[in-house]
Structures are given as C-alpha cells and as structure tokens.
Queue: 4 jobs
Job 1
Amino acid sequence: MTDLTPTSDLPAFRRRRGLRGRSLIPVGGERDVALNRTPREILPLPPEETSKPRVWRNGVFGALDIGTTKMTCLIGKGEPDGSIQVLGYGWRRSHGIRSGSIVDIREAEAAIRATVGQAEEAAERRMDSLVVNLSCGHPRSRLIDAQLPIGGREVTDGDVQRLIADGQARAWSEGRDVIHTLPIGYVVDSMSGIVDPRGHQCEQLATKLHVVDMNSSALRTLDTVLQHSELKLDGLVSSPFASGVAVLADEERDLGVTVVEMGGGTTSLAVFCEGKLIHTAQIPVGGLHVTRDIAGVLSTSLETAERLKTMYGAAQLGSDDQREILSVPLIGEGRDRLARIPRSKVISVIQPRVEETLELVRHALDNAGLGRLANGRVVLTGGASLMEGIVPVATRILARPVRMGKPLNVHGLPETAAASAGFSTAAGLLAWAAGADRDFGDISAPEPRSGGLLKRFVGFIRDRG
C-alpha cells in the first residue's frame, strides 16, 4: 500500500505543488484546511497618516505650451483641495515652429499673441509672464557628480549651496544654458540616500545632479519672441518633465516610471525614480510625420491626411478594416474626384511609423545607461498617443508594462477627459507654476552673461578642479 492508496477511513489525496514543494491535500477538503489553519502572528505596519492636500502658491498663473502642431495657453490657480482649476485657455494651430524649434519669428509671435490673448479673454485677466515648455535648442540630459570637504563639522545651508554651485560649474559648457539642476540625492561620507544633508556631521559631502541644458541661441530666440509678444519668461520646463508632473501619481514616480510624450514634431521621454527626474531624451519624430506619410502615399492634402489619421487611424490592423471604405480627395483633381480606399490602407501607412517611433524610444531607454531603472512602467501621453490600439503595440515593442496617461486633478481643460492627453504638457506647466516645482528641488541657474560675475565664478571653479 502506498501513501496514495485510498481507504474507507481516509479521503483520496492528490498532490499539489506550491511554494513549499509538494503537499498532500484532501480532495474537497481545501476549505476545511483553510478554516482550521492557525492564524499567523503578523505585526502589521502602522496605518499611513491621512495625506493632506497639496498647498499651492497664492495667485493666478499662466502656462504656454509651444508645440509643433498646436499652441496651448492655460491660465489657472491652485484650489484648497489640491486640484488645479483652469480659468481660461487658448488653443490654436502653431505657425513658425518646426520640430519644437522656432523657425519663423514673426509667425511664431503672431501665433503666441493669438493663443495667449484667447486665454486672457476667457479668464478675464491679463498675464505679464508665463512658464513655457522646453522642446527647442537640442535639450541634453546629464548626470554630474560634485564633492565638497566638510572637515567633520555640521553641514550648513552654505555648504549645500557651494556644493550645488560646484556641480553647476562642472555642468556649464560654452554655448549652452542650464535649465534644470535637480539633486538626485546626497552622500554623507559613505552613507548614500540622504534627502537633506543639513545638520549631518561628516568629513565629505557629495551629490549627484541631473542637469538639463539647451542651446543658448535657441533660448535667446525664445526670449525675443516672448518679448515681442509683451510677455516675460517666468520659467522654462522640459516638456516630458512637465507631462510627468501632470499625469503621474506620487507613488508611481517613487516606484520608477518612464513618461513618453508623443507630440506633433517630437517624441520625448522622462525617467523618474524615487520621486526624482533622472533622465530625459528627445526623438525628432512625431505625429506630424505620420500625417505627412499618409498625404504622400495617398496623394492627398495634409489637412485631409490629418483628418484621416484622427478619425480612422490606428496603430494596428483590425479584422474589419479591409471592408470599411473611405472616400479621399486627391491633390490636383476636381472636388468631385474621390479615390475610394479601404481603411486598412490608411492603417498600413500609419503602423510602420508608429512602430519605428516606439523602437527609437526603446533604443533610447536601453542606451540611457540607467540599467534596471529604465525597465519600469511606461506611461504614454501627448496628442499622438491617442492613436487607437497604441497601448498593445507599445507593450510589445517596448517590452514593458504600458498605460495611457492623462492630466490628474486638473479641471477645465479645453477637451474632455478622453482627449485630455493632448494637454498634458500644458497642464504640467501650470502645476509647476503653481508650486509643483517644490517637489523636485530644482535649482534655477542664472543665465551666464559675457564678462558677468557668474561666468567668472564658473571659470574659477573649473580652473580649481
């Protein structure tokens, strides 16, 4: 007789594999076993304190998202419940912008004036300064190490400021301006992961800074256009950084996540971990390239191609797409001359470009030098991410979990929730202006001016190193 031989006294047994190996479980007896099991003695964690709503700055703020295909201006304020209320918005087609850069100053100025004016009229308030997105000037993301001897005494505010100044000096390079200086963490002697080193006693203080800079001439051009529009630059924020501020939950940023902002002229990404922005990148491909592909293949206008992409486009073919027939006007033909094509033809043009864009994103993440930090969840946002079927395609190509991202706790956006992903950058800029910047400890770097005090100080630090 074996252990598995049934008897009149014992129920039949079956083997079931579990985390602890094989065990004999009575057939039909699982419920009794679970009910009779002695409860484990577990010490639970203390309950979390109820989080308080975010405290915003007082006042009304303005944000301007200068995109390749559209410009958006939001005017709003922070509410006591932690949300953002949009008081007025302007939303117009962009002119004078290509791949995020200003290529025609007069056209860009006219578009900015019209967009901001529309928002001011809706909000019944005039804005003198705005927070603007950074997508021009070939933005560059780098990690900079800085160290400062302390000599066994207590770290003071002045020590932290000198450490940051040293890092900024090391990051400075001719022809480029630093836009973000973000401390990722501090090291007190050999102890890493210090959030605030002030008050610690140590021999040496060190930090790693995430620095984002841009071409100086592009910044001067942007400032000139804003001045011509009678506006001041109140702040400059990397576009994917702003989108991340709008669409990510705090815990998501802490666990590790990548935001992919799919715009009209560019696709940009921002990697967050432990609540910090640790990497950004920009790819010069966006939704406008899909529109041009459709227009070229079908010999139709850009306007018609955009409508086809928006209303009938998808990132992958469906079972009924071959049977759905579309009427498409052709360039150079009469209005009555229409080509009849299946929807599958439009999608067959879109799919390769979408896959190429996502493969470039994957390449950028795999080659960012971040290791496992770049392997977390991916959140797609931006107008071009609204393509039907893009989430499963992105999941397959990026080999990472993917979800769609829309602005959180922002009320009064131009579009309904279904299309609000197209306003993620603008919503993040408005939140940044209202006080979200305090979560990241961004240290604004003054613009180096020829012969100025800052430039001489930077030179002194660099020569010393």
Job 2
Amino acid sequence: MGRVMMGVAAGVAVAACAVATVVVGRRVRSRRKWKRVVGVLRELEEACETTVGRLRQVVDAMAVEMHAGLASEGGSKLKMLLTFVDNLPTGIEKGNCYALDLGGTNFRVLRVKLGGQRSSILARDVERQPIPQHLMTSTSGDLFDFIASSLLQFVEKEENGSESSSIGRRELGFTFSFPVKQTSVSSGLLIKWTKGFAIEDMVGKDVVECLQQALTRKGLDMRVAALVNDTVGTLALGHYHDADTVAAVIIGTGTNACYMERTDAIIKCQGLLTASGGMVVNMEWGNFWSSHLPRTSYDVDLDVDSPNPNDQGFEKMISGMYLGDIVRRVILRMSQESDIFGPVSSTLLMPFILRTPLVAAMHEDDSPELTEVARIMKDIVEMPDVPLKVRKLIVKVCDVVTRRAARLAAAGIVGILKKIGRDGSGGITSGRSRSDFKMRRTVVAIEGGLYTSYRMFREYLHEALIEILGEDIAKHVILTVTEDGSGIGAALLAASHSSNNVDSVQLL
C-alpha cells in the first residue's frame, strides 16, 4: 500500500512538474514575444532621436540650403521660388477686395471689406462651388468661363445692384494651388496639372491671362492683381495683423514655408530691384533634405512606395499626410514580430488606412483603459482584442513619431530665422556673438490642422523651439495662428498690389 501511495505521489509530482514546465515555457515564450515587440519600439526610439545637438545641425543645414537655393537655379533641394510679392499688407488697405481660391475639385470666391486700419476686416463673404467633372478635362476656356460666371453672380449678389461706376475697378487675389512658374506678381505659367485636372491646352500658358480673358468675356470689370499660393497668403494675413511677421509656415496635410528675403540676397536673379528692398520667397521646404534628418527604415519604405520617391523628404517626415502611415507601418512590424496583437489584420496592410487625426486621438487618449485606442484598433484596423499593455505600446509609438515630426518642424522654423538673422546669432554669415546681439520681436504665422488641432504636436514643437534657441531668445519669437490665408490673405495681397500702386518690382 505504501509503495502504491508513493507511486501515486511520484506520478502527481511528475504531472505537476510537467504542468509547471508548460506554464513556465509559455511564460518564457510570452516574455520573448513581448521582448521582441518592445525591441521594435526601442529601435524606433533610437532611430527617431532628436537631440538638441542634432536639431541644431538641421537648423544649420536648412540655412545653408536656403543660401544655395537663392544662389542658383537647381543649386539646392529647396526651390526658393520668387513670388514677386515685395510689399505685404500694412493696414492702410481700405474698401472691398476679392479672392478666388482654386486648389482642387472645389473653388471658393471671397469678398473682404477692409477698414483702413491694421487688423481691420469689417466683413467677409464666402461661397464654395464644386467644379463639374467634365470641366476638369475640357478646355481652359470652358473651365475659366465657368469660374468667371460664378464670380460674376457672386459680385452681383454681394453688391446688390450698386452702380459699378461708384464701385470702381475690382481687385482680385488668385490662389492657384498647382505647379506654376511665376513671372510677375500677377502672372505665372502652368507647369503641370495635378489633383485630377488634365486640361492639355493650358500647360505652359499664363493662368492669370486665361482667367482675365474669361472675366472680360463675361463683362466683369475685375483685375487679377496677385497670383499667390496658400503659404504666401498666410504670410500676408499674418503681416496684416502684426507688422513683426517675417515668415509663414503651413503644417497640415502638406507643409511649406515662405519668408521675406532681402533682394540683394537673391543672387540667382541679379538686377532685381524692389521698392521695399525685399521679396517674399516661397521655399517649397517640403523637399528639404539633409543627412542630419533622423530617417528610419519605415521612412525609407514609405518613400519607395510613394508616387514620388526621393522627393518631398522633409514633408514625408513631418506632415499630416504621412504621420499616420508611419505609425501604421510600425504597428504592422510589431504584429508580425509577435502574436500578442492577435492575428495580423489584412486591413493593417492597407497604406494610409490609419490617418493622422486617428493617431492624434490615440496619442491624446487619457482614459485609464485607453478606450479610444481600443475603439480605433477595432473599428479602423479590425484588431478587436488588443490587450491594454499593447494599447499603451501603440500610444508610445504615436508619441515617438509625432515628437520627431514636431521637433523637426521647429528646427525648420529656426533655420529660416537663422538665415534672416532672427535667431539671436545675427544671421548665418554674422560674426557677432549672442551677447552683443539685440533680439527683435519676431512673429511666424502658422496655419494647418496638424499644428492647430493636434495639441501634443503643438506642445512638442514649442518645447523644441525653446531648447534650440534658449529661453532668452525664444521669448522674442511668437508663433501666431492665422485662418484662411489662401482666401483672406489673397484678397489682402490684391489690395496691397492694386492698380493704384505702380509696379514696384523691376528686373534690370
């Protein structure tokens, strides 16, 4: 009997050991899987590192590339395009001015009433119109006749039948968000169509002349006074509200920047004279590149898969169009390394399924159970059973990618300030020390949903600005949000470049 009991006990012990071995084995495997996933995060953190030293290298690289782009055509990844806008709105503008904003499958017409004082917009009227599909591939005459007819109806309705003789000639600012080679403040040749447009007879033509002819055919007494892009419009609007505004940045779905440059610094256009001694330069900074940018394997893969590989490198690291897809690619890699996410979702393989607003929602989820993260992973990515600890990991991925983007955007802004001597150093070629340089109040106008709607992005950008510049200098740099530079800004530029003003830009 004793032997039987001993045998039973031994059997139980063996079974218990076997169970324990299985349990321990599972725990070991689970830890290994978790370690692999955490390893992906650590690798990402190291690759995205943006120390102050590295950011200052990006600042220097941006300033150097700006110099190169101003020195010669094709001398830099930065195009540094001349806008021929040499004077910005100051507040003396008075009366009604108009804007046409054509940037996609819709266009807007605006009427802005100015009060003759700085930051004095008395009234604003806006109408949005869809462009019929057939006109996007028709002729330039058909497209602009349609737009001119809409403008005429808008003007007649807004002016309530007033005598045109008492109104005088109307001035129009034209925001045209397609690739254009600008030849004056009110003329530019279409390089190519994008966004679904394919009107072949217009490529190489002056877009302002096409519009102006259509306005004449419709009997509308209106002059296109300024051809601008949305970034230049943002600078105009910022300067109208605050005379210390020297640059504008758009950080939204895409990104770009422009600033006021001294005419004598634009070496590639010798003999350029302006009444103000300056000109707004459209940087097209989305195409900036430097070896100092912290690029990851996810950035490389995204670039290869994009319609424009080796192009817009800076934009692909900092703009709202791409941040969501970088996060998606990291989560996909994690889910392939381990099954702690559950089965790999086929939806997660779809590019751009995870948009940046969803990343912002997950990043800023402060609920104890991260319920918003769980909802997005279930409803959008179709991964319904993501554990809490994994949801925390996803939030961390959002944080790393967003922080890198915001800090690089801050470095880009400081690069502009360094080029024009507003970073406290006296400029890129100055030999003065920070101690003997008096910092002037400097305002940068900013538009774009990534900055205005994503709190963590905004906070990281401000934090980096202070780290790069130092607190003593940073307190003189103000980032001001503007709204509707492509509309109101264009109308303001029409007013400041009205036919009452003599052409103030000359090429000798």
Job 3
Amino acid sequence: MKQQSSRTEEPHLSNVENPSRPANSSRNDVFPSSTPDDSSGESASQTSKSLWANLRFVRLFVAYALATFGDWFDALAIQVMVAYRWGADPLIIALIPVCMAVPGILFGSVAGALADRLHKVRIMILCDGITIALTVGILFAPSPAWLLPLLALRAMMSVFHVPAQQALTRQIVAEEQLFQASSLNGFVNQCAKIAGPLLGAVVLAFFSPQICILINACARLLSGAVLWPLRRLAEKKEPVIQSENAGEVPKESESFFTQWQEGWRYLRRSRAVRNTIVFGCLGLMSILMIEYQFTTLFRGIKPGDESLLGWLGSSVGAGAVFIILLLNRLPRLGYGWGLGGGYFLIGTGIAALGWVGPDTSTAWIIVLGLCIGLGNGLFMVTMNYLLQKETSPDYVGRVFGIQNSLYSVVLIAAPLAGGALIRSVGPSPTFQMIGLVTLAIGLGGILLQRMLWSISRTSSSVEKTGSAQQGIS
C-alpha cells in the first residue's frame, strides 16, 4: 500500500475561494461556484467539459502513468538482482526500503516548501532527468554497496517530484473535477501494482533484470518529454487573504525558511487537514506492521502453497481498482465514511487472515484480499481528495511534503515493530490484533467524523458535477 498522490484547482489557476459563499457553509461540501469572477471565465467554461478535455491534466496524467508503471518494473528487477543474482544477505535486502524512506524523512517538508515556491513543472522535469541518470547508474551497479546509495538518491528525486505534481494538479484541474482526478491517479497506481509485476515477470523470464531497469529509465524519459511542453506554464499565485482555516498565504518576498515554517503553522491551524494526516499515520502504522509479513503468515499455515501470496496481492489490487471505478460513478462520498470505512474494511480483512488455517480454501483468501483492496482504494482516494480540496492552493506542496516526511518515519518504524511483535507472539495472533486495532481506528473515524472533519451543515461529502460522473469508461 504505497503512498502516492494527485491535485486540483479552482477557476483559472487562481484558486481563490468564492467570497460569496455563505459563512456557515461547510468547507467539506464541494459546490460549483455560481458566481465566478471575470478572470475565471476560461476555467468556469472548462468545468462543464470532461476532465479529458483539459490537455494540461492529460499530459500530467500520462506522465504519472508512465513513471508509475516504470517504477514497478524497476522494483521487481532490483529484488531479483539483489536476492538471486547477488545472493545478498537478508539484512542488505531489509536496508533497501530503509534507504528509500530516509530521504522522505529528511527532505519531505523541504521539498513541499520548494514546490510551493518554485515552478512546479520544471521541478518535475528536472527530477525526471536526474532519475534517468541515477537509474542508468543502478543499471551498472556492481554490488549492494553501490546500489543502496543510488536508490536513496533516486528516492530523494521522488520526494521532490510528488509535492510538485500534487500542487500542479491542484492548479490545473477545476475543483468540481478534483475527485475524479484523484480517482484516476489512484486507478493508475493500483493498475500498475497489478500489471507492473506481471509484465516485469514476463520480461524477466526472457531477459535480465537490467532490461527492466532500462525500461524504467525509458519510461522516465517519456514522462519528462510529455511534461516538456508545459515548462513555460504560467502559475498564478493566490492573493493574500484571510480565511477561517488558512490564515495568510505567504508572499513571494518571504524567505524559504519562513514559508517552510508557515507550512507547519498552516497544518496546526487547519483541523481537517491535520486530523487527516494524523488519522492516516495511526492507521498506516498498524497496516505496515504486517504488510511485509504475509509471507511469514502463509509459510506457517500452508508451507507448500507458494501461490497464496500471489492470489492475495492480485485480489487486493482488483478490489482497489473496483472501488476506484465505483467512486467515479457515485455522486457523494462522506470524508468519515471514506477514511474510516476504508480502515474498517482493511482491518476486517487483516484480522480474518489471522484466523486462516491449513484447511482454508484459496477462494476465502481471495475474498479477504478483495476486502483489503476495497478499503485501501476507498481510503487512499478519499485522503488524497481531502488534502487537495481542503488545503489552500498555495500550501498544497508543503502539506504533501509534510505528509511524506511523517509517513516515511512510519514506513521505517512500523515494519520493525511488526517483526518484533511476530517474533514475540507469532504471525496469526499478530494479524488478529493488528487487524482489530485497524478496524477500531476505522470505526472511530466513522463515529467521530463530525469532530474530526468539521461537518457544519450536512455530512462531509464529495459532490461531483456531471462532468465528473463520466468516470472511467
């Protein structure tokens, strides 16, 4: 369950909240602005069209899809190269995710501040270019001693790339189509999780791991080429205004350090955004404690059946794709139901896996995988949408950068804690406990949603326009 993400904008890149909105109107309800100002004419007319008519978004989406599929080819090849070709020690293998998480901890919030301060498309193109060079370096790495630093540097490029992508999406997509944009990005991510390893396995069956790594470099090259025409895209800054949640938007004259501090201050002031990130960290901590331990669970239950992990992974991906397609068709979705309901389904699936025995059929494993996938897709789409919608456009990069930093800490700490717990009490009891904890977190999100996400008039919702309901055909 990887963290990755997407963004949107209000009329004509300015994203100024409509001053005519009633004071008691909930920020958790998305309504098309009925009184756009004169400068918003172009964007206002765009909102009645399909999201696919927005060529800027199409370019951003295609670039994201290319990079995502390339990364999954690459990930599979690196695992094969390290474990099978080099015969590396398990400790070296365990250091791979650690090396990829450390840059997020060190530079996540800094990258977010830069994304809000500098030209976003140029940041993304530069990151793609450096990623290509580092990937070529990985292609010729002779040993893990060379591979690990290269992986860390390449992960750092992703740390700078993601906030820029999220902030740019927030600017170039109309607010009414934001949920659809988030769903499409989530759809690509889940499809890549399914198709990427399968296609990578086919390539590995006939060629060396280096070919998969080369495919990733080519995908990044195409990603940068698709973004290249947007390099001169004019990015409008939101004027300094006062709002209930956001306070003042930083001026261009402010220093980088001041803007970095303002990102953290904004997070403290914005209840919905702050609570979403904290809620996400709590659930993610539980999930990541067992995410790398499914092999341990199945090895103890059915040591002769190595296909169970494949069936579980495929069903998780299929469940996530299904719910994302469904969300594109639904007119409303409550924040509490999306976030809390997602964790509730994930927790249910994980806890049930803890009661799986040697006589359990593969069909039941697939059902539980679908349950986990439904929850994963529901949570991720809702969380990305909420952070995009409820964050002031000039703070989007910083918010996602801070989120990346905090989640990177969880990414390192949780697997270690989960491994220690499994060694102490065993795989099945650990899955049962962690599943029930995740389920309880999700149930708490549903019951306390009015407190956590500040619903004032109606249930927190995502209300999409007719163009968004076109969904994914």
Job 4
Amino acid sequence: MKLNKSLLSCAVAIAMGTSFASYADTDNKSASSSQLSTKITTESVENTLTLSQTLSENNAYLYQDGDSNTMLVTTIGNNNDTEVVQNQFGNYAQVITTGDNNTQVYSQDGVANGFISEVTGNNNMLFVSQFGQGFFVNNEAINIVTGDDNLIDVEQGNGGHWFYNMDMQGNANEITSLQTGEWHEAEITMLSGDENTLDLVQDGYWNTFKVSSLQGNDNELEVEQDGDRNAVAFSAISGDANEIEIEQDGLTNAVTFAAVIGDDNQIDLDQEGSLNTIESNLFEGSNNEVSATQVGAENLMTADLIGDNNELTSMQNGDLNEVYMGVIGSDNEFSSSQMGDLNSIHLANFNGTGNDVDLVQSGDENTMLVQSSYPDVSLTSNDNDIDISQSGSQNETVVTLAGILDSNNNQIDISQDGTLNLVDMMVEGNNHSIDISQEGEGNWVSGIEQSAFLVGGENVSFSVTQVGNDNLVEGSVIGYDSTVSVTQIGDGNTATITQM
C-alpha cells in the first residue's frame, strides 16, 4: 500500500489558507530590538503564530494545542534557544535559523503534522520529535541544512512518519534519526560535504530509507532496520573513504545500490531473516571493501565491479541462496561462502590480472560458475588464483577462461567432498596449474554441455585425484610441454585423456 505523502501541502492549505511563500518572507516583519525571553501559549484551532528574532542571546518558548495551527519562527543571531510544541491534528511549523550556536527543540504530538527547518550557519543543534498515529495521513519532518558542525536529532514514533533531509551542504554535520512503529520513511535527497555522520534506526513494519545523492569524502552512514518489509536504496554515491553500514533484521528486506564511484570506500551489509536481497548495479573505483552477510532463506546478492585492489566478500547462511559478481579489474580479492541448500555462485566477466578468488559452498546441490572473458571472449585473464571448495552432495563447478585470446599463468584449485560431484572446464593459455580433488561417490571430471573438458596451451600442469566409486575423467589437454596426472582410488573408475 502506498501512503499519501501530501501532508505538508494539505497542512499548509488547512492551517494557513495562503501560499507557503507568503509566510516564508520575513523581511517586513517586526524585529526584536533588545534581549528578551519570550513565552507564547495558544490553545485553540486555526491559529497562526509568527515570531522573528534578530539579536543575540534570545530565548523563545512557543506552544500550540489544537488543530490546524501554524507557527512561523525566524531566528537571526547567535546563541538563541527556541522551543516549539504543537499538539493535535494538522499543525504546521516552519523555523528559519541563521546564525551560530543555536539550540532548537521542536515537538509535535498528533496526526497530519508537518515541520520544516532551514538552518544556515555553524554549530547549530536541532532536536525534532513527532509522535502520533499516522498510517493514512502521515507526519513529516523536513530539514534543509547549510553549514558545518551542525547536530540534527529526529525522533518519530507510533507510525506513519516521514523524515527528509532535502539539501544538506557542509562538513562534519551529524544526523541522528529514530523511527519506531510502522510505515516510516527517511530520505536524504542530497548530502554534499565531507566528514558527515548519519545514524538512522527504524524499528517496525514497512520502513524505507533512501539516499538520492551522496557526494563527498570521509562520510559515515549507519542504518539499522528491525522488522518486516524494510528497504534501503542508494541512487548515487560519489567520493572517497566513505563508510556505509547497513543492518536489517526481519522478513523481506532489500538493499539496492544504483552506483558507487570512488576509492577507499567501505560498505558493510548484514541481513538476517528470509527473502532478503542485496543488489548493486555498479561499484567503480579502487581499494574499496564491500562485505555482505545474509542469514536466512532465499537470499540474493549481486554486484558489478570495475576497478583494482578491491575486496568483495559475501557470506550466506540459509537455503536457496544466490551470489553473482561481475568484475573487470586487477588485483581484486573475491570471497564467497555459502552454507545451506540449493546455493549457487556465479563470477562473470572476470577480466584482468592478479585477482584472487576464494569460493566455498557447504550444503546440498551447490553450483559454481567462474567465467572469464564473458560475454566478450576476446578478452584475457592472467595471473589469477582461483580456489573452489564444495562440501556436500551433487556439487557442480564450471570454469571457463578465455575463448579467442589466451589467458596465462592462472592457478586453479578445485576440491569437492560429497556425492555426484562434477567439474567441467575450458581453459586456454600457457603456464596454468590446475589441481582437482574429488572425494565421494560418482565424481566426474568431464563436460556438461559437451562430452569432455578442454585445456589448451603450453607448460600446463593438470592433476586430478579421485577417491571414491564410479569416478570418470574424460577430456583433452592440448599443447606443448604439459603434464597430466590422474590418480583414482576406488571402484569402477575410468580415465580417458587425450594429449595433442
């Protein structure tokens, strides 16, 4: 169900009866001429309260109790304290702050309330709290921040709340948001600057967090969602040395990255529950670290990466898990571990040099597919280290390196422990070292779509060790100065190797 998010426009129309811009203009309003302490209390409906402060060290306490009230506060100066309280239905507050060292507290308790704050300056502290059920007519809090070293703390409870940072420009700002209940949404449309910190906690049902654009360096984003049907989406991340940590606990959780561009970024993703997905369109850069952990059933993790010296780690514990990695680059490290049933790992477009691949599966009916030069078979992949381990029943491994041009100096180690294990490969190039070990019943080293495996090139070392029953080795090793070793221990073994 998609909720109505037009609260602000409705609240402004109900509470003000005129345009938003007419109240935003405070140039002609009377200003304070001396230090003062202001306390204003209004208990009624459809009231409008306007306060303008222009000097330093001012204090204001504003309270409205009723429906469809409007509050407009403008503070220009230093060391001002402003507290705004609104209760009941359809209230709207707008606070504009320009100056240094301001502390502001805003509280709304009820339904269909809206709040907008515009902060320009440094070292400001902004505390926003909204409470009240809002499943169909939600409460909204919007912050627009320009400046450095600002602190924003937003707390929303009971359900049906929306929190937006429309345009945040500056450095070393800190945003903290806590949303409890159901039907919450938090969104950052633009965060531009360095060394900013965001800490978001959503606890309930059907929570959403979105980042439309993050531009800058050394930013820290930490998101925690606890409940069902949670979603985190990043449209664009551009910058270096950013840290992103996302933790989801519940059912039907999703994390999506549209694009990540930059170097030395660290991304940690943790999902616990069922029907979890992690999807990335593109990571582009160098020295990035991405770690994804999924605990539960029917999990999916996909990532596409362009760059060098990156680390990509995936761990899945549960049933029906699937991992896909599309990679172009050199000196990258890829690690994937799956523990459970019906797991599959697919590493494709593996073009580059000096990459390290470590893939582990423990469970039943696991499959692994490592493809270099796919779908462009004219590309090569050299000096890579591929280590594959499968423990369980009906494991299947397929390795394809190159198609037109040779891929050279690759180390391939495959270990299978279980029943009905199968290894197929087509490797072309020189100076490869291939070691296959199978222990169990019905092990095969042969072709899947075709009748046999194929290894071509010079100075290739090809070794197969099989321990078990009904083993089969069938294929061709084509080239010069190559060495083939086949060891079979068990009953009914067959070995057919063609060297040309």
